[in-house]
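Task 17 of the worksheet. Students: predict the tertiary structure of the chain below and write it out as structure tokens. Keep your answer in the requested format; marks are given for formatting as well as content.
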Amino acid sequence: MGRTDVIDRQEIMDFSREFGLAQNVIEKDYMLGWLLAGIAQHAELSASWAFKGGTCLKKCYFETYRFSEDLDFTLADAEHQDEGFLVNTFREIAGWIYDASGIEVPRDLIRFEVYKNPRGKTSVQGRIAYRGPLRPGGDPPRIKLDLTDDEVLVADPVSREVFHPYSDTPEGGIHVPCYCFEEVFAEKIRALSERLRPRDLYDVIHLYRHDSTRQGRELILSILEAKCAFKGMPVPTMEILKAKPEQAELVAEWENMLGHQVPVLPPFEQFWQELPEVFEWLYRAVEKAAPPVIPVGRQTIDSSWRVPVMAQAWHTKVPLEPVRFAAANHLCVQLNYIDAKGIRKTPIIEPYSLRQTSEGNLLLYAVKHETGEPRAYSLHPSLR
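Model answer:
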């Protein structure tokens, strides 16, 4: 394979502007895609490693999701939890990544530490340094890998395409074996009860809000019960979570742990207050309320147009990806625009979808937060 040049740093800067996130966050997301590609093409790893966790949600299930920084895997082959094997294997992967993308992964900066986890079982933490398009000075940034075989994999792994919205996506895409949706959800609920961290609460609520949970409740519950039994812990309840002393830290760390990963971070209270509803649905089959049907209005909609599957830098005055992020994640946002009469408006809305008219104009469909009134907003340059 001949070496491919790394993408231009301008592409990272364009995505940074579009998402309203730091350039190093976008660069790391870009690198995560190529590291997953390197793992997926390695015969031994792809046959026995199952991708999981928050980065799996972002890269394989919900592209409009919080950015993440680490790679978590459950290993079917315990012999892979060996420092020498992992260092040598990732040196091979580093060479493949360099040839395929031009990204330099310094072989002498590949680190793996084998340790005993709180259950007394073997786990591994890795650190992979890289030099991407931004090329900052000082020590190169790193990606952390968490590897363990101390997990029960209840459902069979599934192959999912990795969201890699950058211009150097490999022909045929990137595909990795990972947890199925229901197993990721069950694992997140278990993790929330075990460690009570902000990202687990964030993920549980967003997974609950997603339509994929409507048909999978019984499977999610059975997987959760199996995972808790394996860990020797009770199935989580709201009462158990409220009694945990870590709750104060959960509130204090909400912004610190999540603020840099999302264009808009809602208040902690919105997520904590919705959590009882998750358990009511999971244990008592109390159905979620269906979202309201938003009328199309008088505009002629281009039914053939679809929002791109992957995020993109739209190269418009209006940053559209934060709006798309809010729509996908059922978040409220405040618009700031000038109406046809020259009056500045600042409504708080919950966006639901982007559509395109037959004339090529983009429309944002939303519900006004205060009145529940459905509206369609034209995304013209004065909206910002």
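Marker's comment: The chain has a mean pLDDT of 85. Residues 83-101 form the longest helix (19 residues).
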